[in-house]
Amino acid sequence: MVDVQEGLRRYLSPDVAQALGSVRRRIRRTAQSATARHHRADERNSSRADRQATPVPGAGVVRAPPVSRIPAVNVASVPQRSPLRYPGGKTWLIPHIREWLGDGCELLAEPFAGGGIVSLTAVMENLADRAIMVELDRDVAAFWRAALEQGGKLADMVLGFEVTAESVGELECNPSADALAHGFRTLVLNRTRRGGILAPGAALTKNGENGNGVGSRWYPETLARRLEAISAYRDRIAFYEGDGVAFLESLAHVSDIRWFIDPPYTASGGKRAGSRLYACAEVPHRRIFEALADSPADFLMTYDCSEEIQELAAEHRFNVARVEMKNGHHALIPELIITRRSLFA
Description:
This protein is α/β, with parallel strands linked by helices. The protein has helices at residues 14-21, 23-27, 31-51, 94-100, 117-124, 138-149, 151-159, 165-173, 179-192, 220-232, 244-251, 274-277, 285-293, 307-315; strands at 105-110, 128-135, 237-241, 257-261, 298-304, 319-326, 332-339. The protein has a domain at 65-109 and 127-134 and 242-345: Rossmann fold (3-Layer(aba) Sandwich). It contains 14 helices and seven strands.
């Protein structure tokens, strides 16, 4: 795995390397100072809302976004590269990613890495020279550290583990401070809990696929192959554990980066699924939009079809397309794809 502060300097342009080298110092902020900044931002936004209180013809009307000309793909038709069963995963989005990155890029940044399917696909299909994944959730971060730094050992642990309700329960009740063991525990819980949910209180799978119970989504040989494939690309993938929004704000001025942004869905007027699916679900959505509006860099964002997000996109004059995708219950759910350029509609 490439270290953010040191290794990336070797192969990125000087402005990107210099910016990345300062990320740790800029992202390590105390909770007190972060809270103070958020309060100041809320005050600025309230003041701005007061100044804009005068009615404007057509303001406040959110039109239904056009449907993307690229449909959501059946996930079975796309290479499954991530070992994680991540709720809210973006395998269905891969055709859009391929078109967006069709001309290639030097560095793809994913500040809400989650299952990492976009970064993995971009690097493995040579859509991006390098990728950097950022994740705040300490359990998910532990998995990516283990996968990128000790992928072979992690694969051996997967092949040697017998999944039973008892063995998973013992692992769940005995977290380890060892990085490899922590990453393995995350993978096991992700593959054996209902829907892959890692948030506190998530239950283990009872019936599962074909009635196979807790082990119904535990495919050791398949998972080991995916881990070995990731290891083969580890020199082109960097990982950083930290606040994705702060990371974005620190590097938004660098034009050489392309951003894929898929935050937890917690915006008002939407399904707010992120609040129950993820341990780290609180996201300042306006800060994301403002950072991108001030940035020269290209980006692609995904969100649920919420009123708040559509209003933010309209306010910042971003392009929005809608994709109808199927959830785990085969219901059609609209998702938004937000870009600076008009790409899909």
